[in-house]
Amino acid sequence: MRTIFAAAVAALLSVALPAAAAEVDVELVLAADGSGSIDDDELAFQRRGYAEAILSPEVLNAIAAGVTGAIAIAYVEWGGPTSQHTIVDWTVVRDRASAEDFARALVDRPRAAYGYNSISAAIDYAASKIETNEHRGLRRVIDVSGDGPNIGGRPVTEARDDAVARGIVINALVVQRPGGMVRAPGGVPLSVHYERDVIGGPAAFVMIADDRLSFADAVRRKMILEIAGLPATGESDHVSTHRVPRADPSTE
């Protein structure tokens, strides 16, 4: 009877108690521009760039060298204020096999985003994914890529500040299109807009993909920095860095 009672208690506990959060080196949301400025060929090229990056020996080595030897990664695409879509949900990558699963899903999924450029809504969506997943990352990062400024939704600085207050770092990849640079409101260069208004958190940085640094190379370098928790190195990686101070709760 005692054995039966013990088995019944164990069964109840296994149902009632949630599984322990899986610890990883970083929870990383890749938030890629899927808005109307990106045609189907460009979207496919963009996804291939991320798929090739996660499969590169450099990125796999960075993952293996971490404290836990694993990362949790999700890929979302964003468009207008009501268009944010999870293309590949949270996947734990710890070796080439799991990286291949992520890469395969990424290139196979259909397009979903529509409308134009709500970076603020993309940040809010990505932050929510980080806050509600089952993983426990030593670091939490949103990686925003885009070829235009924030247009719709709430002010992007508000979304940025809310995410940073939750302990999330936001980095960015600015894609400069051939034939000239898109400018942000006020006529400022797009990279300045992303540096000033989009990125935030300790050692946050903007990387620029242009003639000097191709999109695929930029994605690979950026992911290595984010996975390894390394600071950007300035001109050698064609980046600019920016820190946003966190609010002091004692002053509120």
Keywords:
252 residues, alpha/beta, Rossmann fold, 8 helices, 7 strands
Compact overview of the structure:
With 252 residues, the protein is of the alpha/beta class. It contains eight helices and seven strands; from the N terminus they run H-E-H-H-E-E-H-H-E-H-E-H-E-H-E. Helix 2 (40-55) packs antiparallel against helix 4 (96-108), helix 2 (40-55) crosses helix 8 (215-228) and helix 3 (57-64) runs parallel beside helix 8 (215-228).
Question: Helices, strands, pairings?
Answer:
Elements: H1 2-16, E1 22-33, H2 40-55, H3 57-64, E2 71-78, E3 84-93, H4 96-108, H5 119-132, E4 135-146, H6 156-165, E5 169-175, H7 190-198, E6 205-209, H8 215-228, E7 239-241
Parallel strand pairs: 1-2, 1-4, 4-5, 5-6
Antiparallel strand pairs: 2-3, 6-7
Q: What does this protein structure show overall?
A:
- This protein has 252 residues and is an alpha/beta fold.
- The protein has one domain: Rossmann fold.
- The chain is built from 8 helices and 7 strands; from the N terminus they run αβααββααβαβαβαβ.
- The chain has a 7-stranded mixed β-sheet, sandwiched between helices.
- Helix 2 (40-55) runs antiparallel to helix 4.
- The protein is globular and about 45 Å long.
- The protein starts with a helix and ends in an 11-residue tail after the last strand.
- Residues 8-19 and 241-252 have low confidence and may be disordered.
Biggest beta sheet summary: 7 strands, mixed
CATH superfamily: von Willebrand factor, type A domain
Secondary-structure element order, N to C: HEHHEEHHEHEHEHE
Please give the alpha-carbon distance between the first and last residues: 59 Å
Classify the secondary structure makeup into a structural class: alpha/beta
CATH class label = Alpha Beta
Strand fraction: 15-25%
Q: Overall pLDDT, averaged?
A: 85
Q: Rg from C-alpha positions? A: 19 Å
Helix coverage percent: 25-40%
Q: Given the structure, what is the number of helices? A: 8
Count structural domains: 1
Detail the poorly predicted runs. Answer: 8-19, 241-252
Strand order of the largest sheet: 3-2-1-4-5-6-7
- Strand elements, count: 7
| Fold-level CATH name | Rossmann fold
Shape: globular
